């Protein structure tokens, strides 16, 4: 997953990540070692700030 520049760090994606790979510090930060690229976070991002690469 990739965090795009329009991310506002709302934290909505954190709630839906099944492997707890996302934290927010002003923007979403994805732990690449934990992320499985399932895309669930992107599905629930209301501003399309996450992209499955």
UniProtKB/TrEMBL annotation:
PROSITE patterns the UniProt entry points to:
4FE4S_FER_1, 4FE4S_FER_2
Domain called 4Fe-4S ferredoxin-type: residue spans: 1-27, 28-53
Family matches, as InterPro entries: 4Fe4S_Fe-S-bd, 4Fe4S_Fe_S_CS
SUPFAM superfamilies hit by this protein: 4Fe-4S ferredoxins
- One of the record's GO molecular function terms: oxidoreductase activity
What domain of life does the native source organism fall in?
Archaea
- Which Pfam families does UniProt cross-reference here? Fer4
Identify this protein by name.
Answer: 4Fe-4S ferredoxin iron-sulfur binding domain protein
Task: Please tell me the species this chain comes from.
Answer: Methanococcus aeolicus (strain ATCC BAA-1280 / DSM 17508 / OCM 812 / Nankai-3)
């Amino acid at each position: 997953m990739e965090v795009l520049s329009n991310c506002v760090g709302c934290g909505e994606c954190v709630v839906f990540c099944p492997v707890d790979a996302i934290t927010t510090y002003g923007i979403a930060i994805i732990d690449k070692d934990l992320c499985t690229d399932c895309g669930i976070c992107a599905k629930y991002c209301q501003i399309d700030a996450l992209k499955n690469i």
